[in-house]
User: Fold this.
Amino acid sequence: MIDPLDWELIYGDEVREYVEQDGVSHISDFLRSKLDKWTEVEVNIAVTGDSGTGKSSFINAIRGLKDDDEKAAQVGVTETTTVPTVYEHPTNPNISLWDLPGIGTPNYPDLESYIRRVQLEKYDAFLIFTATRFTKYDLQLVKKVRSIGKKFFLICAKIDENVRAQQRKREFSEDATLEKIRRHSLESLVDLDSDEDHDIFLISNHYPNRWDFDRLTQAILDALPVFQQESLALSLNNLTSKMLKRKADVLRRRIWMVASASAAAALVPIPGLSVAVDIGLITEEISFYRSQLGLPIEGSDEFARLTVSNQEKIRKVCLTTTTQVAAYLAAFASQSALEEFSRYIPIVGFGIASSMSFATTYYGLQHCLKQVEESALSVLNGAFEEALEDR
Assistant:
């Protein structure tokens, strides 16, 4: 069970202040607005490094785009970026990835000119790319970024090309190849008089399920404040099983607000129960779970390509009408649930609605989200197995 204190620490003071000023009559609308707050949070990530290091392909991959899509960053072996260029996330314009020119280029010959023109303070994190060895300019940027309290990540891209080249040898070991690349990158920092321990992320923009792409994504999320973590996590595609789990964890933290809002609204009765909940809000939330965790819509081409087993799993969590949702929640309304939850309810306790309604919604959504997550993971694993067979 998620500790209610997690929810209280983030929103508790705002809720109490709202109730003191405006009472409880519109608390449901207030909580609804908080559920969508993540779409208003800005995240600016700087992507920098020499030309041909995979910056543009990464920007496309993290936004779920192919290199030849209409809104994709231009990919090329020559320096295609002469000024900071912003690329918005296709589903959330407040998530911005900035393709920055590398230091040492004609327009940015040294760190001083770079700092003056790219405005380092505006970015929440810096991704520094290389395809071979890090340069003295990279190390200068690392030191400057650290000095202003910003997070940075050192990335060696195009690992698939390195591994493919080594596979031609008689005695090939992928682990040994990766260790050699990592050591080579670290040695370049040591050669530049860096006495710090650095983590190097080895990635391929074309294979996000392999090597360190997922670990890098998780590290970026961990480096951001909680609201930015939530916004970025819900904006990114389900590239890996860890990312899918991360999204599910964010969605679980929302359940407290949905349950509180449904209890506060107390508008629509569940057939056969004395419990009142906002069925419309809950139906929307379940739909949000499915879209966030990447379950295809029945009737779509993507759904048709799934195995029969995965199709059946999706149908079981396909609650699209208020009648279906009401029937589903009815199974979670019990006195035992109410008794167990009576000591945990964070804001319902001040009398905005019934504890029974809160507990019913909470348990119902917890169970539903678990089913959606399991179905999404099964679909993702199936897609990954297909990709391996096609290689």
Q: What stands out?
A: Strands lie at 43-49, 85-89, 92-99, 125-130, 151-156, 200-202, 268-269, 276-277. Residues 1 and 371 are 16 Å apart (CA to CA). The radius of gyration is 24 Å. The longest strand covers residues 92-99.
